[in-house]
Specification:
alpha+beta, 4 helices, 2 domains, 21 strands, elongated, Cyclophilin, Jelly Rolls, seven-stranded mixed β-barrel
Amino acid sequence: MSKNFFKIIRAGINSTFQDLGRDNLYHIGIPFSGAMDNRNYLFANKLTGNDHNHPAIEFAYLGPHLKYYGEKLNVAITGDVTFKIKKGDNSIDGECYQTFILENNDELDIISTNKSVYGYLTISGKFDLKFQWSSCSTNIKANIGSNNGEKLSDNQKINVKKINQNFVNKKLNYINTKIENIRVIKGTNFDYFSKEGKKIFFNNEFKVSKLSDRMGMRLEGKKIENIVDTNIRSEGLIKGVIQVPADGNPIIMLSDHGTIGGYPKIGVVISADYDKLVQLTPGSRVKFQEVDLNSAENLFKLYELETQNLISQI
């Protein structure tokens, strides 16, 4: 029995264990899953001295309220998040992108994300988790991953092992920015859509629907007309692909997406914009901007370079 553990007082809306996900399982219908916002996930692990693929708690909107029992450990939270650290009768406002110490009987109350969706919690130790296909990432729609493939729940206990005793305070000066123009490359069924439909896709605003989760983001706007067929023979999907069903409203496939689908694909969100895309809250307005494949590759290289430069500052 572990002497170091968290007791979950409140689990939050959608709190799960995530890492970088699982590779090369599309052929059996298993997507990558993993952290939705890869950059903020990597920052959190670097702050607490972990390797880049260390399990973290990902939460959405209302985060977990945890009580800690055991030896002191370092903790970090990334994202645009409001949280408090409770030490006895004292309540301290927490700061994102900066480590802080939790000691026996301290509480961590992650109140909310601010004008964003996802935040990340890491510790200078290891959550005691079972891995599936070399990953802890939880896909609750398929019951895959740690915690029996389920979200965290109230009154649950999370054991901690192998605490890293390096308590050097670390901080990163970073501000999350919003994105309005989502850059895309043309999809494999781009020519299924009318000239007017393509014009609407690239020139009109779309609103992020409430019907969005880790599996996909539904958008609402002027109908994108299909002039060939609103259904195709099911074929492989990738993260970021934009399908358009018969109602003409785009759906963007996200980290827990199904691996095949039968709706025509008008475009694919470039990898450089994915982390910011997933942080768009319901009601946000977005527009799509076309780029070619070569530009998409260069933009991703720049985004990766910027991420590594920021990590090196920690």
